[in-house]
Specification:
This protein has 1 helix and 26 strands. With 369 residues, it is mainly beta. The strands form 5 sheets. It has an 8-stranded mixed β-sheet with strand order 4-1-7-8-13-10-16-17, with no helix packed on it.
Length: 369
């Protein structure tokens, strides 16, 4: 239940077409034409029942191209080939390879299209990595894979080490509150990369951990159930990035590890202030101003009648940004981002309070006069 709730909250931020998870799957109809190399002794199973997951896992390969595509899937484990199969997949159809492995572990998966594009994925099979098949997609741009696991802080069989409090850190005044801040780490390289995560709050260090992230894998680390400011560091052997992380203004920052190291991944198309609304009983002038680094900034002002709502389109850039809301000429609310704000963002006046909202969640609120 906890995993589903967190993944549901993070889904709008993912911005990726190939998700590992039941909610994102689209069952296919029809049978693709088949030219298959036989595979024996599957699913791969450990002799000790405790070393197996509850049900065998497989791979679903989707063809999102406009033409039929011949593809090959290879699964390897500890230097040996577990299976190799090939098939022509019709446009818009999926190929389900069921019951490949039951044994917990990390498997090397290679998906290659006849046109030469390929993806290498470190397939993590374990309870904290979902009970569904791995999903890969053939797209016009190439081959995509994606897999999500929740690490709090550990997520076996993925290798992890370090020091951490119990995660997510509880809110002392509201125990059991939903997760307020979580960090996602994704490895876009074609090999396993050690990625370090450090988060410190006003009560001291929360986590100092290193994850050996396989290729194509995302680890979600639920950090805290409390709002506030945190010092956040993500590092690989070649690069370190540091941010002052504000919650709830940026609840779920996501970092992608490429060839040059980690970098914040921002979905800039959705990160916009889209609407101002006045739910008060009186006419009110609302102003919104954005300031980013040395940029001169942008602003919008509108006079809204009682119950009036007006669309606007202000892009909130990634990086250090300050958003200020003015009500009848008075500065009433300030929000700051250092990583990536989630969007779309709406400014709403209700009674004597001004709210910043994102997907019906309150990012920040303040007295409006």
């Amino acid at each position: 239940m906890y995993r589903r709730a967190l993944l549901a909250a993070l889904a709008p931020l993912a911005g990726c077409s190939a998700l590992t998870g039941g909610d994102g799957r689209t069952p296919a109809t029809g049978t693709p034409s088949q030219t298959t190399t036989p595979t024996s002794s599957l699913p791969l199973t450990a002799s000790d029942p405790a070393a197996n997951v509850d049900s065998p896992r497989g791979i679903e390969l989707r063809n999102r191209r406009d033409t039929p595509t011949y593809a090959t899937v290879v699964v390897e484990h500890e230097g040996e080939t577990v299976m190799t199969e090939s098939k022509t997949i019709q446009r818009g159809r999926s190929w389900d390879i069921e019951g490949i492995v039951s044994r917990r572990g990390i498997y090397n998966v290679i998906v290659e299209a006849e046109t030469g594009e390929r993806a290498v994925h470190g397939w993590v099979v374990g309870e904290q990595w979902g009970e569904w098949d791995l999903v890969a997609s053939l797209t016009p741009a190439g081959v995509e894979t994606r897999q999500i696991g929740i690490c709090a802080p550990d997520c076996p069989p993925l290798q992890a080490r370090g020091e951490s409090r119990a995660l997510p850190r509880e809110n002392p005044t509201d125990p059991g509150r939903e997760v307020a801040g979580a960090v996602t780490l994704r490895n876009d390289r074609d090999r396993t990369v050690p990625v370090s995560l450090q988060v410190t709050g006003d009560q001291g260090q929360i986590i100092d951990y290193t994850y050996d992230l396989p290729a194509g894998v995302e680890a979600i680390v639920p950090v805290a159930r409390s709002d506030g400011g945190y010092d956040l560091t993500v590092a690989t052997a070649g690069r370190t990035v540091e941010h002052r992380w504000y919650v709830p203004e940026e609840r779920f920052p996501r970092f992608v590890v490429g060839e040059t190291g980690p970098a914040a991944a921002c979905d800039t198309t959705d990160t916009r202030i889209t609407r101002m609304s006045n739910s008060k009983q009186t006419e009110t002038t609302v102003g919104v101003a954005l300031q980013s680094d040395d940029d001169p900034g942008v602003a919008r002002t509108a006079t809204l009648g009682p119950g009036e709502s007006r669309p606007i389109s202000l892009r909130v850039p990634p990086g250090e940004t300050t958003l200020t809301v003015f009500v009848d000429g008075e500065r009433r609310l300030t929000a700051e981002w250092t990583v990536c704000p989630g969007g779309p963002i709406r400014v709403t006046l209700v009674g004597r309070t001004v709210f910043l909202r994102n997907d019906d969640r309150v990012i920040k609120s303040a007295f409006a006069g």
